[in-house]
Amino acid sequence: MSLYCQTDPGFENLTHSWRFEDFTADDAVGDAHGVIVGNGIVGGGDFQALSFGQYIELPADEIAINTYPAITLEVWYTATSADNPTHHMLCYFGNSTDNGSGTFVGSDSYFISPYRVDNMCRTAISCGNTTQPWTVENGVSIAELADVVIHHIVSTLNATEIGMYVDGVLVSTAALTGTNSIANISTEHAWLMESGYALDSTVVGKLHECNMYNKVLTADEVAFQYARGPATVTSVADHIASRFQLSQNFPNPFNLSTKITYSIARTSDVKLSVYNVMGQEVAVLVNKTMNPGDYSVTFNGKDCSSGIYFYQLRVGDQIITKRMMLTR
Fold first, then answer.
1. 146, 194, 239, 303 - which has most CB atoms within 10 Å?
2. How many angstroms separate the CA atoms of 12 and 131, rounded?
């Protein structure tokens, strides 16, 4: 059963962490201290970019991302859309080179972009093409996240594939092709809230935390990180009321039916849904306005195949997601 529980990834493989607790962009576990560009506000667990041109420059040579055997890049941020009308990147590692026409493009790079002109949230790697790097990208995409809600994105990268989790749920993975590899990522630039493409804008919004690991976190470790919330927001206290809770289903793993218990703190619109590993909604267990209290519901998986599923509680604009296993 332990295979299907949340697992604390610990700190052994955590190489860098920017948490903004001490009113700086310093690295909490390493020496890759950031420099704030523009007049962004830092403190209390956030970096707030209030207007364009405000971002954080990291020491790319100190991070030396191209020496990692594998990478997990984890970010917590609050998404907005009105202030970000163009392409942008929340995290960027790579070069920015003239493509021959006087336009600088992001080459030999690795990035996370949560919302863009093409309405996608995407993580990708692109190496070996300095004129049209987007044509050789390997990446994973999902619908953009621009709903003014705190979100958790995890990008994983190893020798063979790139993957992405959003709010604790695996979106998908994609195989690496051509010259796309960790070893080929440039150490020329490393930025938070800034893109390697000159025509892109910086991000306007809040970055709560950014962590780097020198391994690929497992699905259970990602689930643990999502459940704990940003390190600098105790139990996501500014966002989730003390009785906004979703318990682990029981039994788990389960055969056909399992019980899900949850609590809400105030009268709210409540939705409890079940998703498969592709992010497709397979069942809606609750979808109505409810009063404060403790509740439980039974999920019957008679129409579902064996495998991993995720159940998500949405109360107003707050979300908790947990993982469960159906066996037959």
1. 194
2. 39
